[in-house]
Write a structure and sequence with these properties.
Layout: H1 6-25, E1 34-39, E2 42-45, E3 61-63, H2 80-89, E4 95-99, H3 102-109, E5 131-132, H4 140-150, E6 155-158, E7 162-167, H5 170-193, H6 201-211
Parallel strand pairs: 5-6
Antiparallel strand pairs: 1-2, 1-4, 2-3, 4-7, 6-7
Length: about 220
């Protein structure tokens, strides 16, 4: 494998940082979860079965444009095809994170989408967070299921599995994953109290328009 460029080295360091950040925030436990980032026509992805504390820049796996890895490289995450297909089909995003955060996973195990009980669900680019049909982990079938479900959104749940979030950068994808987990917790809590009042399609449309002019503009 050729030596990484300065840009590639930074992306490798960012992947390690994000995996440790997911563990510290409680979005992941142990060696579960994975993250990837676009690199030219290929991508960088976290290795299979390595806990974040033991991960370093050399652990990160480079996958070429044809889906191959260099001789002697670590095995990529078992979910690499899912990341690969997303990055191939979504030119608007450059990073993907997948985690087994508690409340998102509870809803995923019940195969319940996150309905719009709170307007911040709009961070994911849709009026709800849908659930991709179940397929066994690490298979092309799971990759197809997730790609088909997420559409143009930035997140979806994965039945009996967890959640996946996309972003322009790794930090953006992490922020989306955090919000998905928060919205999952809010929805879960609301259902325990009774039947939550779900925002209407018209109300969500107003929210999306409101967010068009939200925050600082340069």
């Amino acid at each position: 494998m050729t030596a990484p460029t300065a840009d590639e080295s930074k992306l490798r360091a960012d992947l390690v940082r994000i995996m440790r950040k997911m563990a510290a925030s409680g979005l992941n436990k142990g060696a579960s979860g994975n993250a990837s980032v676009r690199l030219g026509d290929g991508m960088l992805i976290t290795p299979s079965g390595v806990v974040p504390d033991l991960m370093d820049e050399e652990s990160i796996v480079r996958i070429a444009a044809d889906g191959s890895t260099a001789p002697g490289a670590r095995r990529p995450s078992s979910e690499w095809e899912m990341h690969w297909h997303i990055l191939q089909r979504r030119e608007d995003i450059d990073a993907v994170v997948h985690c087994h955060s508690r409340y998102a996973t509870i809803l995923a195990c019940c195969r319940r989408p996150i309905e719009p009980v709170h307007y911040m669900v709009s961070v994911t680019g849709g009026a709800e967070v849908p659930v991709a049909p179940y397929q066994i982990f690490g298979t092309p079938e799971l990759a197809t299921s997730v790609v088909g479900t997420i559409g143009k959104r930035l997140a979806c749940l994965m039945a009996n599995h967890g959640q996946i979030a996309l972003g322009h950068t790794l930090d953006h994808a992490f922020a989306v994953a955090e919000e998905v987990e928060e919205q999952a917790a809010v929805y879960y809590g609301a259902t325990l109290l009774g039947s939550p009042h779900v925002l209407t399609e018209s109300q969500m449309a107003d929210i999306f328009r409101r967010f068009e002019d939200y925050g600082q503009k340069r």
